[in-house]
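Two quick folds needed for the group meeting slides. Do the first one here.
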Amino acid sequence: MDNVNKTLYIPLYGKAYVSKKGILLKDKKAEEIWEAEGFALKGKARSKWLAYYMGMRSAVFDRWLTAQMKKDADAAVLHVGCGMDSRCLRVEAGGRMWTDLDFPEVIRERRRYYAESSTYCMLDADIRQPEWLAHFEKGQDLILVMEGVSMYLKPQELQKFLKMIGAYFGKIHILMDCYTVFAAKMSRYKNPINEVGVTEVFGVDAPLQIIADTGISFVKEHEMTPAELTAQLYGIEKAIFEKLYGGRLSKKMYRLYEFEKK
């Protein structure tokens, strides 16, 4: 895998870590894969604070996705940048079509642990190219999860992607986390993804700019570390985590945006 694709091991470790501790997220598949792969993370990438954050972020995405599926029973689910994530097992899809998409080298690894079915498939593609759209029926309603993906796309690439899906699909619901421009600049010097060789990422300060001329609208910003989840941590760990990932500095670095096309 190239360095960007190796970043998938950071959230995988986080989800396996919190699942094993019995907090935030139940993810036996993450535990299984992490145990089998044994990728050698080091430094900040193996921090328990980051692991808590990765588990919490995924729990927030899971809850949002569950709520959106109840609102639109006909929408297909697309998880872009799925890595080795087991969201397709953690969240009940209710028999709808679910597609996990990532680069070919990632999907090759993923196929070792996941099996396709009549309602679940894995798609190896680059979302910056339009060919993958043919996998879906034009005009299909879509629920799109983009967790830990936007920061690897230049703002113009992200806008182009949103414009493509805005033109192709019917109703669309999107949840996407983003670095700020400040965070992207700081990432050159201090970011856990540096541990796997990634030094260039991109940020978004104005969500309205990336949806200009896409047919997609901004809905709202979500809380990345909601109180009901941080409450699962105790004592000094809770205090330290809130300072690292729930305070003003975190707000300056990370954002979680919801978009839609009606």
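Then this one, please, same format:
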Amino acid sequence: MKTKSGLFAMLPLILVSTLAVASAGAQPQGSDAKSILKKMSAYVSSQKTIALTFDSDIEIITPQLEKIQFTNSGEAILSRPDKLSAHRVGGYADVALTFDGRTASVFGKHINSYAQFEVPGNVDHLIEALRAGHGVALPGADLLLSNSYDVLVAGVQEAKYIGRGVIDGLECEHLAFRNFDTDWQLWVEVGEKPIPRKLVITSKTMNSAPQYTVRVKTWETDLQPAPDAFAFVPPAGAKQLSPDALIELDELPPGAEKGGKP
């Protein structure tokens, strides 16, 4: 019979053996990973309407090299091709976005201020305009694009099928991808509805490799949004800001440098 100290002495060997088995099971299987990613993309882009709720975490690295994580929650309703409503609440911002197919409105409830700009096109064009024109990163928004597979695999240098995991009690396929400056992992629900359940983006170009994580909590399709779901009426007394101020309506406190870019 092994003594308690003997058992603890064996733990490193057990851990090494476990890691070796896990590593063997995670050998590069890029075709499997990409095929699952493509199936997920085809399913998501085929949905006329999607309503979801999510939690997200974003990390920063302080000048003292301390890693701090900030958490937000939110919901979104997408009606293809050109309507979107989203709301995110965190410790430092309470922000709502509406897009009616012509005008995008971003309302900071915590400061009672809003910004608007015209977007000719669809939701894909809106996401690009927010990123390129207004500095809003929107990590994870690529999962909802109509051509998400092409966007996600662009720049991928390595793809792996890791195995299966469980997210909120749901069995998921675990995928891992490597780009030049980021590593990212995706968990896709197993079954006829390959719903993206979790995304983790790791920035490799920043010290301590900060991460961005989003977890899809609920997912509903084939719904009929309310007639005013994508309409924005400025509240009484709300101040209109320049669209250039959108970057200030962020997930982090002012001055914080984030990581985990997509």
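Slide caption for protein two: Helices lie at 4-25, 30-46, 123-134, 148-153.
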